[in-house]
Specification:
Layout lengths: L5 E5 L6 E9 L3 H8 L10 E7 L5 E10 L10 E8 L1 H12 L4 E3 L4 H8 L5 H12 L3 H11 L2 H25 L4 H26 L4 H7 L1 E6 L6 H9 L17 E7 L2 E7 L9 H16 L2 E7 L15 E5 L14 E2 L8 H16 L10 H22 L4 H19 L5 H8 L7
Helix pairs in contact: 4-5, 6-7, 6-13, 7-12, 12-13
The structure holds guanosine-5'-triphosphate (GTP) and magnesium ion.
């Protein structure tokens, strides 16, 4: 399947819809216009209303056609977009008519954007921004994806790469002229300082609390506490459905039950966990182990105190955590400990305040880093490796290991920056990124 294939796909949502957009990209586009459009090849980048037929002359639809000749198109190739009536038969007829033509086939997931990437229209982080924008459910995700799509991440990575390239040039001069001993010391010191300041910038980016990834993938919240405190009942209230099993038997929940919600304009994953207690039961003990892990990994914990059997939270309570005093319906006047939020999963009392505490936490967290440059684990992994290479370069300088080694470490760091933006792309990374797109994008 070479780039010479012309690809086509439905680019709009599933039928029926008012309008369906069928997208075509590749060298056969002018020929396709000649064969299928009564208008012939439309004037570039102008929508024309035309009768559209298959090659046997049978009418597909009356619709708008827009032709964008290479290289000024999304993919950099000749492209044609057809705006048809969005019925399943119209779409099927259009795609059949297109794929019946020589050199035309259906596109694979993400293939239009992959072609755009290969034509240099987008770099890899920008292409990821396209995918994120399509999937964005919250305004926070949308804003982050738009920033990424318009080069907000690549700008930083490219700046770092350019700075490193400049440093490498300086170091290479020292490798090439090793005898200029006096020059070495003088020229080397600014290099070391610049490596250090770059390290500080990369460290700051890595130390962003994972906000970009949280905005994209969701914040993690764990409901923890002793058995029977009402953790699952609280989850069900928050989820507004019976997501977890509730019984009066202590030790009901074993697995971590997660529910995805949008609160405070952000995606949050709320995890109900097994009640924390010492137990001989092998299954329950595994549940407790998982509960502890979920609590440790969460951005925020909701500690549930049982009003029927109040005791302090068994696990560590961090500053941002929320403590709730559940079954408040059973105790009047309320005896909630200081700082604990009285709630009743039974009556729903206090649940709105719990929800707004969670919303407040996530929206504040999301705003705590203005423009995170890491939005995926892929970025974090490469940047971490880039930082390690920078450290190695600095240490090689400090230990007088020779400029060849420093140069090698700088080259490694450059490679990590380049692979984030896809300048050097390992094929499997590209495959992994683009295969997650929808067809037609
Ligand atoms: N009166 C009253 N009963 C409640 C409240 N919340 C939960 N319960 C009851 O408490 C019992 C335990 O509730 P669960 O939600 O299963 O408690 P849990 O903390 O998930 O328990 P484990 O999964 O065993 O750790 C059930 O009988 C619930 O109906 C509440 O606010 N008021
Ligand atoms: Mg439970």
């Amino acid at each position: 399947m070479g780039a010479q294939d012309t690809i086509c796909a439905l680019a709009s949502g599933p039928p029926p819809s008012a309008i369906a957009v069928v997208r075509v990209s590749g060298p056969a586009v002018p020929d396709i216009c000649g064969r299928l459009l009564a208008s012939g090849v439309p004037e570039p980048r102008r929508a024309v209303l035309t009768r559209i037929t298959d090659s046997g002359g049978a009418e597909i639809d009356h619709g708008l056609a827009c032709f964008s000749p290479a290289p000024h198109s999304y993919t950099g190739e000749h492209t044609l977009e057809l705006y048809l009536h969005g019925g399943p038969a119209v779409i099927a007829h259009a795609l059949d008519a297109l794929t019946a033509l020589p050199g035309v086939r259906l596109a694979e997931a993400g293939e239009f954007t992959r072609r755009a990437f290969e034509a240099g229209k987008l770099d890899l982080t920008e292409a990821e921004g396209v995918a994120d924008l399509i999937e964005a459910e919250t305004l926070g995700q949308k804003a982050q994806a738009l920033r990424q799509l318009s080069g907000g991440l690549s700008d930083t990575y490219n700046e770092w790469r350019d700075e490193l390239t400049g440093l490498l040039a300086l170091v290479e001069v020292m490798v090439d002229f090793p005898d200029e001993g006096d020059v070495d010391a003088g020229a080397a010191s600014p290099v070391r300082g610049r490596i250090e300041s770059l390290m500080a910038e990369v460290e700051a980016a890595l130390g962003d609390g994972g906000i970009g990834e949280r905005i994209r993938d969701g914040f993690r919240i764990a409901i923890v506490g002793p058995p029977n405190a009402g953790k699952s009942s609280i989850l069900n209230r928050l989820a507004r459905r019976e997501a977890a099993i509730v019984t009066d038997i202590a030790g009901t929940t074993r697995d971590v039950v997660e529910v995805r919600l949008v609160l405070g304009g952000q995606v949050v994953w709320i995890a109900d966990t097994a009640g924390l207690r010492e137990t001989e039961d092998v299954v329950e003990a595994e549940g407790v182990r998982r509960a502890k892990r979920a609590a440790a990994e969460a951005d925020l914990r909701i500690h549930v105190i049982d009003a029927e059997d109040p005791s302090p939270p068994p696990g560590p309570v961090l500053a941002q955590d929320i403590v709730v005093f559940n079954k408040a319906d059973l105790r009047f006047p309320l005896l909630a400990p200081d700082g604990a939020l009285p709630v009743s999963a039974k009556t729903g009392e206090g649940l709105d305040r719990l929800e707004s505490s969670i919303s407040g936490f996530v929206s504040q967290r999301a705003a705590s880093v203005e423009a995170p440059v890491i939005t995926r684990a892929r970025h974090r992994e490469k940047l971490t490796r880039g930082l390690a290479a920078l450290k190695a370069a600095r240490d090689a300088m400090d230990q007088d290991l020779g400029f060849e080694l420093v140069a090698e470490d700088l080259r490694l760091a450059i490679r990590e920056m380049q692979s984030i933006v896809g300048e050097i792309g390992v094929e499997d990374v590209l495959g992994a990124v683009f295969s997650r797109f929808c067809i037609g994008k």
